[in-house]
Design brief:
Elements: E1 2-7, H1 10-22, H2 31-37, E2 47-52, E3 73-80, E4 93-96, H3 101-120, H4 123-131, E5 146-152, E6 165-169, H5 177-192, E7 205-216, E8 226-239, H6 254-261, E9 265-273, E10 276-282, H7 289-301, H8 306-319, E11 324-329, H9 335-343, E12 349-351, H10 354-366, E13 372-382, H11 390-402, H12 407-418, H13 428-431, H14 434-440, H15 461-476, H16 481-484, H17 491-511, H18 518-538, H19 585-589, H20 598-615, H21 622-627, H22 632-651, H23 654-667, H24 670-693
Parallel strand pairs: 1-6, 1-7, 2-6, 7-13, 8-11, 11-12
Antiparallel strand pairs: 2-5, 3-4, 3-5, 7-12, 8-9, 8-13, 9-10
Helix pairs in contact: 1-20, 3-5, 4-5, 5-10, 11-14, 12-15, 12-18, 15-17, 17-18
């Protein structure tokens, strides 16, 4: 059986991969280690990562240099997708570190099935049609598309391919919902063609879990709250497929092809869960995406769908007690939509992906070609408050006008990016968000209503953007406007900036893990920042010979306004020289008459998601057990731990146990391992029965088999 983990952004997939790779380490002497020890078989499960694009020669995975993971990859296999149904399947491209061909064979098998599924479904043709649809998308269209399959934990001859783990980073939806469903369906069709060892059925099976960030919707929530989702209401607009029948896009540009299609749009309000898919509203065909989307929003806000939505909630309550219904949209979700959702009883998360994942789960349950859906769970972390008071908006505007950094902030931010943007490697002296301290002075009550607190610190969202994007944007930009928002940066200096950014990227791979080389790396980063500062000074955005710097933010923070003459997407700096030196961009972006607008909500969201996704990535850990009782079994296990097992654990010499376990693992031959597996069969059988009887409510989206049930004898089962 496959365990499939789905994520969308780097920060959603990276902690899952990190957590699963850590299952191969000796667990600590804590409560969660007891559960891990009951499933030592996890140490012998191969892990395959399906990443978009051809990255055979890449040195990073999910914004983290490959050698920073607790286990290195053994193989990389690139599946280039055929451009037509008639084209022969392109040859695979392979990079290898491992010596056991079993892992390479399975990674190659996944890659081949991905190519075949893309060929059978005319993947390239469908992507082309969606690209031609004219709507905004975050997934760049390429003439030759590909997936890269990473293989981890495949070196040992004892690796068991009966239950492989697959991590999928699906494309971010952007504003084209069909893209995410097309990619996920192609991947699931590929897995459905693989018959795992020991599987007596002609159809494979899969557990599917999703972990991600989202926006708060219901009252009473706060940043960092974990929501469990099992249904989603969709508000969006999709291409009217009937308007494209018999048409072929022609033209040299995307705009020309869009016009030639004469396509139309329909507004949709729909509901999906693994057991049901219902279209609640479908508009008449419209000429533009905006017209169709506006109709769908108006229908949802009218409350005319209140009765059918109540029935959808009853369905989820009956099938999945204590789970939530989220709100999915193909556009950014404003306060008016959130308020209408609360008025109609929806209290889950809001995001852009849940509905589309649930549509795939529904097809897995009732369709053909994909693995049979066995167990499933969607976990979302609320990353912003459901309501932002006026006082926060006013304070944020003041902070945005007055906040400053030093050169050290820029150096430490880029170093954090090279270190993998992990919670344990951040420099809080530079990463803390001073806005939180200003809000504290307002005496609005508990700060955790608005911020995700790490101790008493809050991650600055602009520090995160610096770590994630400044180096990469500078290295790959085709114009200075992508970095600075204005196109008139001196060409020579911008070329120097790009050269130094690329040099740091190359040096970072080699030097970031060598403390004795850190000083040289910092010098290279410092030279890059010096050039960056010279461009700011030439534009009148920074005083010369002063260590007072504006805070960099991607141009997108200003919406479309950053493209206007005189605007720039950096926190406003007091005008240098004359009062008319440059427009106060942040005054434009945060008008007092439009409070609070999307920029503050986005800033609060980004101050939460990077840290919370890493801290809350569940492993059966004590925090998750304490804060989120996912099942009666988990609650009973917690109670027994406190009353019966805690004294035993305190007295146990876990280092000696670890040594004994490792000695036995290394000394074991195939027969001994089989005997141990048979000894665990009773425990595994109990777990399978538990899951079969309660499969719609998994205790965690990241434990392969969930917490163990109480042993029949009433005593603790020991697996060592």
């Amino acid at each position: 059986m496959f365990d499939v983990h789905i994520g969308f952004m780097d920060e959603e997939v990276k902690p899952v991969l990190n957590q699963l790779l850590k299952l191969n380490e000796s667990p600590p002497a804590t409560f969660e280690s007891v559960m891990h020890r009951l499933f030592l078989v996890n140490r012998d499960r191969p892990i395959y990562v399906i990443e978009r694009d051809d990255i055979l020669n890449g040195s990073s995975l999910f914004q983290m240099i490959e050698h920073q993971y607790s286990l290195p990859w053994d193989y990389k296999v690139v599946a280039v997708l055929p451009e037509t149904r008639e084209q022969e399947l392109p040859a695979l491209k392979v990079a290898r570190r491992g010596k056991d061909d079993k892992g390479l064979e399975f990674a190659s098998l996944i890659a081949k099935k991905l190519s075949k599924a893309a060929q059978d479904s005319d993947f390239a043709g469908q992507v082309t049609a969606l690209w031609n649809s004219g709507n905004k998308t975050k997934l760049a269209f390429k003439g030759q598309m590909a997936y890269t399959v990473y293989a981890f934990n495949c070196k040992s001859s004892a690796v068991d391919h009966r239950n492989p783990v697959v991590i999928v980073r699906a494309p971010e939806m952007g504003l084209q919902p069909e893209l995410i469903r097309l990619n996920l369906k192609t991947i699931m069709l590929a897995l459905g063609q693989i018959k795992l060892p020991g599987n007596k059925s002609d159809r494979s099976a899969a557990n599917v879990y999703m972990y991600g960030a989202g926006g708060a919707m219901g009252s009473g929530t706060k940043p960092g709250k974990l929501q469990h989702i099992m249904g989603s209401v969709y508000i969006g607009a999709e291409v009217d497929s009937e308007s494209l029948v018999g048409k072929v896009a022609v033209g040299a540009t995307r705009k020309e092809r869009t016009v030639s299609l004469g396509q139309r749009w329909v507004g949709l309000v729909a509901f999906s869960c693994p057991d049901s898919h219902i279209v609640l509203y479908r508009s008449a065909s419209q000429g533009t995406h905006k017209e169709a989307l506006d109709l769908a929003k108006a229908e949802f806000k009218s409350l005319r769908l209140l009765a059918p939505l109540k029935q959808c909630q009853k369905l989820v309550d009956k099938l999945y007690p204590s789970y939530s219904i989220s709100l999915t949209a193909s556009d950014f979700i404003g306060g008016d939509i959130k308020a209408a959702a609360r008025d109609q009883g929806l209290g889950g998360d809001c995001n852009m992906e849940d509905y589309h994942v649930l549509r795939i789960l529904h097809e897995m349950r009732f369709g053909v070609g994909m693995p049979q859906l066995f167990n499933h769970g969607l976990a979302r972390i609320d990353c912003d408050p459901p309501h932002i008071p006026q006082a926060l908006f006013t304070t944020f505007k003041t902070w945005a006008q007055e906040a400053r950094w030093t050169k050290a902030h820029y150096v430490e931010g880029i170093l954090w990016g090279l270190r993998g943007i992990t919670s344990g490697s951040v420099s809080w002296d530079h990463a803390h968000w001073g806005f939180k301290d200003r809000v504290a002075a307002l005496n609005l009550g508990s700060l955790d209503k608005y911020f995700y607190l790490v101790g008493d610190r809050v991650l600055c969202p602009f520090f995160t953007e610096l770590a994630c994007d400044l180096l990469e944007t500078s290295a790959t930009a085709t114009s200075s406007s992508a970095v600075f928002g204005f196109p008139n940066a001196a060409v020579a200096k911008f070329s120097t900036l790009q050269y130094r950014a690329k040099m740091i990227q190359a040096l970072g791979v080699a030097l970031i893990g060598q403390p004795e080389k850190l000083a040289g790396l910092k010098l290279a980063i410092g030279a890059f920042i010096d050039t960056f500062g010279e461009i700011l000074e030439d534009a009148g955005l920074k005083e010369r010979n002063s260590d007072v710097w504006p805070i960099w933010a991607r141009p997108g923070w200003g919406g479309d306004k950053w493209k206007e003459a005189g605007s720039w997407a950096v926190v406003h700096v007091t005008n240098v020289g004359t009062a008319q030196a440059i427009t106060s961009v942040w005054d434009e972006h945060f008008p007092i008459t439009n409070a609070p607008n999307g920029n503050l909500d986005r800033a609060l969201y980004k101050s939460t998601n990077m840290m919370a996704l890493q801290v809350l990535a569940p492993s059966g850990g004590a925090k998750v057990v304490r804060d989120h009782a996912w099942s009666n079994v988990m609650s009973e296990l917690t109670n027994r731990h406190e009353k019966e097992w805690k004294p035993r654990l305190a007295a146990k010499d876990w280092s000696e146990v670890d040594r004994q376990v490792e000695d036995r693992r290394h000394a074991a031959d195939a027969r001994f391992r089989q005997e141990q597996m048979e000894a665990l069969a009773g425990v595994i059988s109990l777990i399978q029965r538990l899951r079969a009887s309660n499969s719609c409510k998994p205790p965690s989206p990241f434990m392969n088999d969930g917490p163990p049930p109480p042993p029949p004898s009433g005593t603790m089962v020991m697996a060592f």
